[in-house]
């Protein structure tokens, strides 16, 4: 099924610096999927489960979080906390009979790295495969 | 504290299938401390119910509120502030709260969002363990402060069974044999002779086997 997904990305301030490069144009030039709405947060450890769920309530087909490497978080355990909350949301989605893969956590290096774009493409492809959110009825 | 955990979402969504509007009611008592039913969990639950209903092609209006406790008459009265805003209450309190609302609000349907599990404590962050069975006839003064009723898999009263190995219970290697721990603790106080005293046959009527229990303090009643 072909459709235009809506994906919400919550990214650590430090990990998403591409979004600021070249006056914000670099991500687009690197092929970052236009389906992804980037929300920068000071630290992914600040994200609450309700924040991730609200993204689904607001119409996201997929939600993902990009935080620092587990052993390199600026706030020590922020991205580890985020991963735990992403796992909790995934479990809750599965309880509701929804594919857990619609929510993901990635730990990526801070700064300008190609993995940030690669994971965006990966998420875009995954959600396109899964199809529209079952919550979009 | 009373420890509880959220029921499976499918079960909760099924309960509210026919509701147009509900009140998700948090309890700021024990279930807040064990992160099962406080205000944050009620917000999460509200979001999950909305998503579950959306998936079923239905919509639901949810008001989220909280009470200091759901096990006292005077706090239950505060539910009146949401009058007319719900078809049913989904309580994130322990089973006591659900019962109390049902007792005191004859016209209000109340659904439990939690499975109430045990009396316990936080062993470490994010982990709770059972410590007390509320059996109504405490023997902790005889057992070094460690409860064989709640913490022995068989609730034995006269030392370990034959399944105790290396201080662990036969039901699982992660479970301590509480009778080994009782022995070690009594020995550390030079009271291991207490282990030789045969416990009498226990009267379980105080543990609920004699029907629902009640405590009355005449000095507190008016």
UniProtKB/TrEMBL annotation, chain A:
It comes from the Bacteria. Coiled coil: none annotated. Residues 7-131 form the F420-non-reducing hydrogenase iron-sulfur subunit D domain. It holds the Pfam family FlpD. InterPro entries: MvhD/FlpD. One of its GO terms (molecular function) is iron-sulfur cluster binding. This is Coenzyme F420-reducing hydrogenase, delta subunit. Keywords: Iron, Iron-sulfur, Metal-binding, Oxidoreductase. It comes from Desulfocapsa sulfexigens (strain DSM 10523 / SB164P1).
Automatic annotation (TrEMBL), chain B:
It comes from the Bacteria. Pfam families: DUF5981. Residues 111-205 form the Methylene-tetrahydrofolate reductase C-terminal-like domain. PANTHER family: 5,10-METHYLENETETRAHYDROFOLATE REDUCTASE (PTHR38755), METHYLENE-TETRAHYDROFOLATE REDUCTASE C-TERMINAL DOMAIN-CONTAINING PROTEIN (PTHR38755:SF1). This is Putative Methylene-tetrahydrofolate reductase. It comes from Desulfocapsa sulfexigens (strain DSM 10523 / SB164P1).
